[in-house]
Amino acid sequence: MEMTWLRHLAYAFMPAVTLLWGEALRARFLYRGARRAVRLLVAALLAWQSVRLMKYMLEPVPDAGDGLINAFWYLYYIFRAALPVALLWIAHVADRDAVARRMPPHLLALLLLNLVLAAAILTNDWHEQVFSFPQEREGGEWEEKLEWGAYAYWVIWFLEVFAALAILWVKAGLQKIWRPQMVLPVALCGLFLAYSIFYNFLPLVRIDVTFTTTGFFLLLLELCLQTGLMPSNDEHESFFREASPGLMLLDEKGRASLVSKAVPGGEAERKDYRISKMKVPGGGTLVWYEDMHLLRERQRFLAQANRALARRRRYLEREAPKRRERAAQMMQDRLREEVESLLKGLRPYFREFREEILKTEGEAQKHAVYKLNLLATYTKKRCVLFLKSEESGRIALDDFEMASSEICSALRAFRLHAAIDWKMPDEMPAQTALLAFDALTTFLAEAARSRAVEDIYVTMAEARVTFLVEQQGAWLARWQALWHEGHAASQIAVKDLGYAVSVDCSLTEEVKR
């Protein structure tokens, strides 16, 4: 009688413990989907406990029929069928905020299978495929014997429990949060499996199944939350206090519930903070102290930079025209110096050709005009190439070819033809190009003056100019002497090839000088 009273007392307090512990667990889950699944699990445990309590209350009632007592004896299997499915639901949505309130279809199908097995247990008196009660001897007590249906039921039930833990383990591995203490929930399941196996064989472990199952599921959820196998908000207070933003959570009466370390202390310190407030669901206010110190420092730095840029702009506005004027003046001075230097050596020829034109007539006068035209063409193209070189210090091959082509065209009046083979790069240093142009023009002009040859072949390379003429004459010696007067460092090599005379003029030494 005393044990029966204690059992009834325990069953009276067990729903309250289950409800309080279950709601505490539900509140600690991070996402809403898992919280809904926890409510299903707690509801199934409470319904099971209610059915068992009614069964124990009906046993001493004389008028209670055997059919009613047998129905309450097996009815708890209906609610027990929902426990592993609820655990699978929790494992399915524990790591995300599920918007859908309904159970996933595949879990509903699994719940339907469990209910079918529970219905088979409820109708066991008709088919005895789950339990059987053979009579030992005449007048002896009935004993319970497990049939194949019981083994099938327990295998499926425990497979669902271990499948839920396997899902949680896989998710922990994929999210790289697995820790050794996550083995504890599996160890607890192993203990419960051992208890369920030895329950039918060892009287020492025949503790009430309702107590052990309720404790197992609540303790299993507790271990999953404590070990991190299921996401929880247990550390939200310490996380809030260590948060880098300045946050303060006030209750409905305006008292501070949680304060982060970045919240400024006194009113003097809060001058550099912008305060924003927001109402939170369930009452209370979230206050955000936004640190404006760094922003204002950046604004001051940008303002200082803008002032410096403005001063620089005003200075450039004043100085830029002056600099352009100075640059233009320097360019004009350099051009004047170059032209003066060029004309200094050419003025005697201009005077000579002018006098020759005035003193001669006929073919001689025409020949003097041709010489003056050649001299003017050389002077013009030499100045153009010099201006081109002032832009970047280099002269393009196209410009050089164009200038050389005009010189060759002017020489045709003297019945002198020059063929040029170009082996120069697309661009060359200005000094090299000008020196090559001078060598080409003076050589061709001296050949035209002597009227000794009619065809000249020229090879324009990067560091040398090579001329091929039919024969060597006095005019070639005059050109070498004239060239060495102005370009002493330049080397000239004359070689008789048998079929022609090669005159090689090196440009490298002149460039280095």
From TrEMBL:
<feature type="transmembrane region" description="Helical">
    <location>
        <begin position="182"/>
        <end position="201"/>
    </location>
</feature>
<feature type="transmembrane region" description="Helical">
    <location>
        <begin position="151"/>
        <end position="170"/>
    </location>
</feature>
<keyword id="KW-1133">Transmembrane helix</keyword>
<keyword id="KW-0812">Transmembrane</keyword>
<feature type="transmembrane region" description="Helical">
    <location>
        <begin position="6"/>
        <end position="25"/>
    </location>
</feature>
<keyword id="KW-0472">Membrane</keyword>
<feature type="transmembrane region" description="Helical">
    <location>
        <begin position="106"/>
        <end position="123"/>
    </location>
</feature>
<feature type="transmembrane region" description="Helical">
    <location>
        <begin position="74"/>
        <end position="94"/>
    </location>
</feature>
<protein>
    <recommendedName>
        <fullName>Histidine kinase N-terminal 7TM region domain-containing protein</fullName>
    </recommendedName>
</protein>
<feature type="transmembrane region" description="Helical">
    <location>
        <begin position="37"/>
        <end position="54"/>
    </location>
</feature>
